Amino acid sequence: MIKELLYAITPENHPVIWMVVTCALGFLVAYNAYPSVLFVAREKHLMDEPESRSAHKERTPTLGGIGIFISIMVVLTLVGAFLNTKVLLLVMGSITILFFIGLKDDLAGTSPGKKLFGQLLAATLLLVFTNTRIVGFSGILEVSVLPYGLSLVFTLFVYIIIVNAYNLIDGIDGLAGSIACLVSMVYGILFLMANQLSLAILAMALVGSILAFLRCNFSKKHKIFMGDTGSMVVGFLLAFFTVSFINIVQTAPSSPYYKDAPVVAIALLFYPLLDTLRVFALRVFKYKVSPFKADRNHIHHHIINLGYSHLQATIWIVAINALIIVITFKLLPLNLNTQILCLVGYGALLYGLPFVIKAKAKTSLPEDSY
Questions:
Q1: Cα–Cα distance measured from residue 338 to residue 336, given in angstroms and rounded to the nearest whole number
Q2: Which residue, 22, 186, 233, 364, shows the most beta carbons closer than 10 Å to its own?
């Protein structure tokens, strides 16, 4: 009877229900963890002090990633027996490494070199033991398959780019969490379509934990920031989803996205990638400083400077990224190189919308209203 009951409730038989339950469980665990995290942060004065480039004016806890990490670990522990245990254990080990590096950085500071080493170590664990890597460029620039060694190096490069690009967009309330929710939900659906239930459930566990974080992140009374503790873990999971999706699709010729995996992945993470490329270019070529020198030149900072609130800026950016994803899926019948050129074009144009709308609103006002 027990055997029959276990068979009846396996993820393969009810995948959507499992995804919904996992998301709800992730939310509940994180939701109940945050009061304790906030209490400890305030009692021990573990606060972020506002500075000249900060988007906030008050001392705020920066340990929001603790709730996300605890939630994911608890959920995977509870449901892991029904899933691909090997992959999930490796994921848990990798994000644990990044969690403690991020925690140290939030509490006492960590050198960029140590953070980079931790990211490489975490990514290498998954690469070595699962062989989940980007095998080629799917025909971009006429390159289909990469040599094994180059494939490993390029996959590690993708991990580093995505983790750090995600970390850089954590600059205003709700933005990093909302982008992660959007991307994880889409990946959850794509993994479900590919019958990769372990990855789909992991993606939904992340969605649930981040939704609980966003509740606090947008709160005025119980505000908490994600911090490096969260951005390292969440950014790494988004990178893992990206590499896994591309690997699954590229090794399955029957997949509807067989030749389109790169453009889908770029579209999902378009804002972090675009903002990082833009900021790095400005720092190196215009201001002649290190590309890692912090400033307020991010797109979200400029939107805030136009007079939008944090919530409005976040809604703008997430809505635009969602629209970019929809357009990208609509254009999949096109040649891959054409898709990428179009993506860069309409993506850049759409992110100029808030500036155009604000400029038109100002010019439409009578002179005595300025």
A1: 5
A2: 233
Is the residue at 333 inside a domain? Answer: no
- Using DSSP's 3-state secondary structure scheme, residue 47 falls into strand
List Cα–Cα distances, 215 to 26, 78, 137, in angstroms. 14, 24, 39
In sign, the C-alpha dihedral spanning 68, 73, 77, 81 is: positive
> With the CA atoms of 273, 278, 283 and 286 taken in that order, what torsion angle do they form, in degrees rounded to the nearest 10?
160
- Closest CA relative to residue 126, chosen from 165, 167, 98: 98
User: Encoding tokens for residue 7?
Assistant: 């068979």
Structure tokens at 231: 């951005």
Instruction: Give me the domain span that covers residue 250.
Output: 8-255
**Contacting residues for 209 by C-beta, under 8 A, at least 6 apart:** 26, 27, 29, 30, 67, 68, 71, 72, 75
pLDDT of the chain, 370 residues: tens digit per residue: 555 655 556 777 778 999 999 999 999 999 999 999 999 988 888 877 666 555 566 778 889 999 999 999 999 999 887 788 889 999 999 999 999 999 999 988 888 899 999 999 999 999 999 999 999 988 887 778 899 999 999 999 999 999 999 999 998 999 999 999 999 999 999 999 999 999 999 999 999 999 999 999 998 888 999 999 999 999 999 999 999 999 999 999 889 999 899 999 999 999 999 999 999 988 888 888 878 787 888 899 888 888 889 999 999 999 999 999 999 999 999 999 999 999 999 999 998 888 787 766 666 545 443 3
Assigned domain for 67 exists: yes
Handedness of CA 205, 209, 215, 217 (dihedral sign): negative
pTM of the full structure: 0.92
Flag whether 135 is in a domain.
yes
> Total domain count for the chain?
1
SS3 275: helix
Residue 251 lies in a domain: yes
What is the number of alpha carbons within 13 Å of residue 246 lying toward its C-beta? Answer: 28
Q: Which residues pair with 140 in a beta bridge?
A: 143
Largest CA distance in the chain: 79
Flag whether 167 is marked binding. Answer: yes
d(CA 101, CA 43) in angstroms, rounded, equals 22
Q: Is 297 annotated as a binding residue?
A: no
